[in-house]
Each structure stands twice: as structure tokens, then as C-alpha cells.
Amino acid sequence: MLEIKDLTVEIGGRKILNKVNLKVEQGSTTVLFGPNGAGKSALLMTLMGFSGYDIVSGQILFKGVDITHLSVNERAERGLGIMTQRPPNLTGVKLKDLVKVISNDHSFDTDAASKKLDMERFMDRDVNVGFSGGEIKRSELLQLSAQNPCLYLLDEPESGVDLVSIEEIGTTIDELLSSRSKCSVDHYKRGNSALIITHTGQVLDYVEPDVGYILCNGVVMCRGNPREMLKEIKAHGYQECIKCKQATL
Ligand SMILES: Nc1ncnc2c1ncn2[C@@H]1O[C@H](COP(=O)(O)OP(=O)(O)OP(=O)(O)O)[C@@H](O)[C@H]1O
Known about the structure:
Helix content: 25-40%
Bound molecules: adenosine-5'-triphosphate
Distance between the termini: 23 Å
Number of strands: 12
Shape: globular
Number of helices: 8
């Protein structure tokens, strides 16, 4: 589904990602761990094609096609969707209008989706303007439901969300990953795939992860069982990254 090969990225001339190699298999959920400033968000932003993330070398393959130099629009059309940590305020753009443009699909039931995410009263408001942290997450999820991408890039979906809402957000993500898919192939357990950044691992109470990666200082340190990685990080922090790299790479 997604293959990142030797990807090196700079922001303003500073190297942020260094020869990153990472794979997300079709229908699988991959988790990206790493300390603050490791480059996790930069990786997701680069994958989506946002400007300012200068690809110095390497390749991004999506469904077997080289998308390294495609625009954000082209990537979205091919099935990449993102929930960023800090989406911009879209003053003058109502949420209902944005969802309509994104869905571009008459079969998407906006009323049902907005009701499910408790976003009905936000549909006539400007996107993200004055939204709380949790409301922004729900709005982003509504937009992702409308887009129905093949690969969900989720940057800390639980951050800023209270303990009750995390259940709603977690189960919605799980449903989206398991739902109707443009990418489904019968023999896979589900069609949609995800690359999720999480610090706390709370989202993993609702979404079953398949593979984990740890990124430190822009370098992939190890790949392994995500639940074991999380346990190790909680017990010993990220110092173990170095040992892990020595052991596995
Ligand atoms: N627009 C930018 N201009 C300059 N530096 C940037 C920019 N965006 C990110 N960086 C830098 O790139 C590095 C990686 O940032 P990134 O946000 O990807 O880290 P992260 O692993 O997602 O961290 P966190 O867990 O705190 O969210 C940081 O040192 C950050 O300051």
C-alpha cells in the first residue's frame, strides 16, 4: 500500500528525516512512536505532500506508484487522507460546504455522519474557528469519513480529547478502517490502512495495531510488535531506541 524508501527530508535547510524506510501493508494499521521533535509529524506532512517539507532524496510509493512529487490534491485523489495535529482555521468556509466538496459522492450521508460524531451544530460554522481540541478532532474525522481514503494518516488522534470522547473517536477510527473501501481486496482482513502517531497509545484500546516503528532524531530505530514497543517505552522511555537499533538493523 505505502512504501517509503530512503526518504531524507529538510525543512528550511535542516535535515529532519534521514533515510527513512517504512512500509504500510494493505489493510494493516502501523503505529509510529517517537519522542517530541523526532520528525513524526514531518513524515506524515511529507507523505501528504505539504509544502515546506523538501525531499532531498528517496521515494514514496503508494499502491505501487511513485507519488514523491505529486501535489496534495493528486495524493488525496489517489486515496491518502490526513488528520493533522493543528489543522488551520478556514474562516469563511462552512463545515457543511467543505464536507460536501470532500465527499464528491452522493452516497455519503452527511446528516448521519455528522449526527454520529455529534457535529450537527457545527455544520454551519466556519471550519475550526473557535472549535475546541476535541471538536477539531471530530471535525477532522467527519472530513475523513467524507473522503473515505485508502490510507489514513492520523497524527495523535487522542491529543486534546477527554476520556469520554476518546472512546467515540477511537471507535469511529476503527469503524472507518473497517468500513467500505475503494481499496478492498477480498483476502485482506480489511481494505483501509492506517499510519497512526500516538504518544499515549490510548487509540490502541480501540484500533488493533499490526506493526510499530520507533523514530528518533529523524531516523527509524526499530520495527516490531507495537504493543510490546509501547510497554517498553512506558517502562524505560526512548533510551531503548539505540539498543533496539543495534539489535535489529
Ligand atoms: N515549519 C517548520 N519550520 C522549522 N522547523 C520545523 C517545522 N516543522 C517542524 N520543524 C522541526 O522539525 C522537527 C520535527 O518536528 P515534528 O513536528 O515532526 O516532530 P514530532 O516527532 O511530530 O514531535 P511531537 O511528538 O512533539 O509532535 C522539530 O525539531 C521541529 O521544530
